[in-house]
Every structure is written in structure tokens, then in C-alpha cells.
User: Fold these one by one.
Assistant:
Number 1:
Amino acid sequence: MTDFVLVHGAWHGAWCWRRVVTALWKQGHRVFTVSLTGVGERAHLLSPAITLETHIEDVVQVLIAEELKDCVLVGHSYAGMVITGAATRQPNRIGKLVYLDAVVPRPGDAWSTSHPQSIQAERRHVIAELGMLLPPDPAIFGLSGADRDWVARRLTPQPGGVYDAPLMFDQGSWLAMSRTFIDCHDPALPSMAGMRERVRTQSGWTMIEIATGHDAMISAPERLVEALLAPPYQGKLR
């Protein structure tokens, strides 16, 4: 039995893991899903005071409260920032880090760092006006039909205070951890291009490819579960 902690990306909530949670339960694993402050069922807490630090603490408190050891900590998209911060603060509780088509930061990076300057400017303008980032059309995540509609109904605004918040962490502690990157490349989300290149040139990674879109937990839950349960190796899942 393995303990999994699943952390959603921007605009999402714990709801997005529904299909993955059911599959992992059936195989006898324990699963803890985190809804970050201000989104998902916690959207009523949306506030300019929410920062990256808030979201890191959301995850840290789950690790502590559930007394987890050697868990698999999974972060999707933006949550690569979050799990990196949480894991380096509670390294003894982590058995493996999984970056699901996620941001892989360097010390001092913010979520915004990996985005082109044009996107940074656009998002900063929206944050200055609204204090938040409105959800995009889920079609950009490779979703269509009923799945797209299901996700569109549930996406909520992302707290603006997390966008430019830098993450400082002990890179040595992080590099010593078991790390897997799951590359969802069909269709590939353009903003993840730099992350895919980074992990392919940095030692210590297990790379798994899944031929699906960015929201693999929705579009390819069976293949994602297979990837989450895979031992460290270099491979592709199609």
C-alpha cells in the first residue's frame, strides 16, 4: 500500500482527481487530495492575501496531520511550485515527487518565471485589475465534449497573489529526492515546453510520456494511474 497526496493545478480543485482516486483505491492505496485555499470547494476563501506560501502550507499541514511517511506527492501544472516547497520543508515524509506536466522551479523562481513576457504582462494586468486570474477555456488542456463541459463548470478563479511569488528552497535536499516527470504531450501545453526541456537535461529524473493533453487525470486516468504506480525508469506510456 502506498500513500498518495494529489495537488491540483491552477483554477482546479480536488474534484479533478475523482477518476484517479477511485482507481488507486481499488488497488488498495490511500489517497489524500488537497484543495488549495481560494479555489475548488474553497473558492469562498479567495483573497488578495493568498500567496504561494499559503498553498505550500495547505500541503504541509496535510502531510503533518495525516502523519505521512514515504508518500508519493503529486503536483499538477502550477502545483509543481507547491509540492517543491512542501517537500523541501518536510523531506522525511516524502518517498517520491511526481510532476504531472508541472512547473519544475529553480530556487528563486516564481510561477510566472516560465511564461513568455507577453503572457506575464497580460496576467499582471488582469491581476492588477481583478486581483485574480480568470479560468481559461478547458479546451487548451486538450479536453473536448463532455469532459470539457464538466471541467468548465468547475474551474474557479486563481488567486492573483501566487503568480509572482518567488520560491526559495534547499535545492540540495530536493535533488536528493526521487523525482518523476510525466510529460503529457498530445496536445502539448505550450507553457510547459521549458519544463520538458529542463527535466530532459537535468540528472536524476524518471521521465514518462503519456499521449494525452495537460489534464491527464481527466482525459487519461487509467494511463496516469499506471504512470503513478510505475517504478523509476525511462519510458513511455501511450
Note: Residues 3-237 form a domain with the Rossmann fold fold (CATH 3.40.50.1820).
Number 2:
Amino acid sequence: MVDILAGERLDHDSPVPLYHQTAQVLEAAIEDGRLPEGSRLEGEMELAARLGISRPTMRAALKQLVDKGLLIRRRGIGTVVAPKPVRRTIALTSLYDDLEEAGREPRTRLLSLETVPCPPDVAEPLELDPAAAVVRFDRLRMAGETPIAQMHNVVPAGVLEVGADDLERTGLYRLFREAGITPHIATQRVGAHRAGTEEAGLLEVEPGDPVLTMTRTTYDTTGRPIEYGSHSYPAESYWFEMTLVDL
């Protein structure tokens, strides 16, 4: 950070507010790669001192960049340069495959894996009796060292034999295909909520920060429900792209 701000001077006589000038300095450093994604910024007081401005002015500059999605505040870490968001088209693909295609080094941390009676809220989409056995597992998907998604999935027992090593080495859809099962169609709902304490800790955001949500029920080529997923993503790390047609 010393090299990045060395020689930077703000114009105190300019009609452009100092906080905006400061934001422009930091944004230029992000855009030209001097501040690569994941870089941790110094504290507000240190940054303000380097540029000869007040702490409230620096805070306003950082907020402007947070609002633009260029910076994020990570719980327990501070302010960091935001990773490039994961671009997903409205297609039947897995997050693992999308990250791999984008060269983002997908990694998975398994949080839980158990066989349980079907949860009541999942029985209808999976077309199961509430007493039916299902395999339920929770994972944290990362791009490199950056948390991208908390993923809750339920698969009817007997559909897919899966172990902890399988779930950490690759994506669920790839495991289905390796077992000769083809995910063919899915219904999906996208929403949002504010991060709870546990969720915020896993995703490295602040409690109350916006989180994008997605629930999906996937069917194979015979029309059989094979998976129900409920995932949450830091809002700045994920976006959908779709094509709309006037019929």
C-alpha cells in the first residue's frame, strides 16, 4: 500500500469532493492491477494519514467503492478488493464447473454429510414421503481461498452413492454423470436475505450483509427428482446473465 499511494496528491482546492478524489485514486489502482483482487487495505486511519485527509473522508471514499462492488468488508479481515463475480448463465450447470471454466480454482470444504429422514420442506419437491431416507450434505465452495457459496443439498437415498472424498474433489453434477445419471432439467428460484451469524462467518461477510440465495430441484432424463439444493452467495461475488425474448 505504501508504493500505491506514494506520490498521490489530492487537490484540496478542487470542487471535486476529497472523498471522491480518494475513491478515484483507489479505483485506478484496482483497475490497473496495483491492487489485485483479495488485497487487504490498511485501516481507515492509516490510509487517511497517507493522503492527508480526515478519517470520515476516507470512510466515505471506501463506502463509495463498497457501493460500487469494488471493495468488500470481510468479517475478521477488514476491507479487501472484491473478487470478480461469478458469471452464470441461466443454464443447467454446476457452480464447480462454472468456476473451473472461468479459471477460478474451485475448492470444496465438506461441512456435514448424513443420512436422515426427508426434511418436510424438501419432501414435496423431491416427491418423497417425509419418512423416506435422504442423503443430506452441506459444503462451502471456494474460489481459491475466497468463499463463494454455502451449499445445502439433499439427494434421495439410493440415487447416488457418495462419500466425503467425492464431495470434496469435484461438483455434484459431475458425480451424477460419473454414476451414469444425467441432470436434464431443473426448476430454480433466486432470492436474497441478510446473512445470519453462522452464515456470515462461513462466507466471511458481516452479519446482516446481503446474501443472494438460490434453490433448485433437478430432474434426470426420466423426470425423476434427483437433487434439491439451497445455496447462498455473498452478493458481490455472484450474478446471473439471461437472454429475454419477446414472443
Note: The first helix runs from residue 2 to 5.
Number 3:
Amino acid sequence: MIAILGTGKMGEALLSGLLRAGFEPDEVLATARRPERAADLGKRYGVRVVTNAEAARSAGTIILAVKPQDMGSLLTEIAPHVAADRLVISAAAGITTSFVESRLEADVPVVRVMSNTPVLVDEAMSVISAGAHAGEEHLRLAEDLLRPVGKVLRIPESQQDAATALSGSGPAYFFYLVEAMVDAGILLGMPRAAALDMVTQSIVGAAIMLRDSGEHPVILREAVTSPGGTTIAAIAELERHSVRAAFLAAIEAARDRSRQLAGG
């Protein structure tokens, strides 16, 4: 039995991914703070929505998907019900495995996960790290749960805040870029729908080329950048406006915010 505690946007994304991966609704428990949210989840997915305490008592694998600021109170609530033979997976930004372990009453194996919203289309990037009591079998179990909905990568926990900034928040950067490119298309006289189609397909195609070709992004970018052509003119403007430096600073700021969330 798997329980998802805190079925907000990311929790629901993980829930729907588990069901698409082949889990039966009666194998998954969910929790929700509001009664109307609980009723909606039960109706939409056919899963049983229970209290946090019941979920912690019943499930062999417990996924903590609440907001970082709510993690401390959740752990206080469920600690008496989490036995040492359970696996706890924490999916909250900035929350360390030691934070979770110190608030549980037994030496429970904890795996820290940072996933992202493309879990909704089975293209998530999930990074995992083991806590003090988690071994190879626990990492493998976490990978088995997450692999059907995307790619899974093991990293040292010291890199988790950077992963949160890079891939956890990453989809938002692409949506921001698409929004800007579509606005540029409208500025140039394109209908919004046509501009969105062109930009979306260009980004999808470029992402697949990058993933499947094995080439460095510089090589792929240079293949489009002819001497004296349109692409180099655009890139010169991006460099003039320090877009590269802005991305570096933005992702560093997201990393710093992840650390702040961990500190409350």
C-alpha cells in the first residue's frame, strides 16, 4: 500500500502517475486538508482518502507531498504511527532527510525526492537521495515508483537544493520563455495561435534532438547559427541583454530559496 500525504498539485500529479503506471486505486491512499478536496480526489481517481494518521499506519510506503512549511506539523502528527519497517519518501522542496528522520520516533528509512510537473505527461525529471537509514533496496523502490512517469537520477543530498532550482522549477523557465517568444511573434504580426504552435513545436523538437542525439547543446546551437545570419543576430541581442547571466542568477536565487524553506 502506498500513501500520498498532502495531495495538492504535485501530490495529485504523483497520484495520477502511479495509477497510469499500473497501480490499482485500492493500492493507493491519499490525504487532503479540505473535505471538498477529498471528495473530488475520491471521485476522480477512485482512491480512498483518509486521515494522515490512518495513512501512516496502513501504508508500507509513505510519500510526504505537503508544502515545506507544513512538514514539521505533519511529521509530529504521524510520527507515532510510522514503524521502522516503512519507507518514507519526502517530496517537499528544501526539506532534508535529517529533518524528517529527527521527527520520527523510529529509525525509518527516508528517501528525499525532487520531481517536477511533467509527471503529468510521464516525462518527469526526478532526483533522489538516501537518508541515514535508507539503503540500496529503498532507493530501488523509490526508483521503481518514479521511473514509469519519467527519468530518475540519484544524486548526493548536498546537491538537492541545486536540483530543485534546476529541474524542479525548470518547467516554469521554459513556460516563461515560450510566453516571451509568443509575445515576440505577436509583435511581428503573427496570430497568437500560430505563434504558439510554432514555438511549442520548435521547443519540443529541439528538446528531443538534445536528448536523443547525445550532442552538446553548443554543437546543436552552432548548427543553426550561420555566419552573418538571422540566428546570430538574435543571439547577439540576447548576449547584449545579459540573458545568460540572468538565468545563472535566477537559478541561483531559486537554490537559495530552497535552502530558506528548509530553515522555516
Note: The longest helix spans residues 192-213.
